[in-house]
Amino acid sequence: MLRNLLALRQVTQRTISTTSRRHFENKVSEKQKLFQEDNGIPVHLKGGTSDALLYRLTMALTLGGTVYAIYQLAMASFPKKQN
């Protein structure tokens, strides 16, 4: 039993340590230049089209939720009359 556990330990150590690592290019300095550039664009929109789309979607959902909440409050404050 102990031999099996030791063998399993060796196998797992080998597979973990021999896996190939992915090499990623460091793009932090490029992103820093982009976001620190003074071009009059708000920082939450400097990411490009996807940031603008996410911003507009968030604003639309926020506005829709606010309108719906006000509508529900109005409906709750004026209950229907029972005949």
Automatic annotation (TrEMBL):
GO biological process, any: regulation of oxidative phosphorylation
Protein's pathway: Energy metabolism; oxidative phosphorylation
SUPFAM superfamilies for the chain: Mitochondrial cytochrome c oxidase subunit VIIa
Major localisation: mitochondrion
A Pfam short name: COX7a
Membrane topology: Single-pass membrane protein
Entry protein name: Cytochrome c oxidase subunit 7A2, mitochondrial
MF annotations from Gene Ontology: oxidoreductase activity
Record's keyword terms, sorted: Acetylation, Membrane, Mitochondrion, Mitochondrion inner membrane, Oxidoreductase, Transit peptide, Transmembrane, Transmembrane helix
Compartments in which it is found: Mitochondrion inner membrane
UniProt keyword Hydrolase present: no
Family under the similarity heading: Belongs to the cytochrome c oxidase VIIa family.
GO cellular component, one term: respiratory chain complex IV
Gene3D superfamilies cross-referenced by the UniProt entry: Cytochrome c oxidase, subunit VIIa (4.10.91.10)
KW Signal (keyword) present: no
Lineage, highest ranks first: Eukaryota, Metazoa, Chordata, Craniata, Vertebrata
Organism in which the protein naturally occurs: Mesocricetus auratus
InterPro entries tied to this protein: COX7a, Cyt_c_oxidase_su7a_sf, Cytc_oxidase_su7a_met
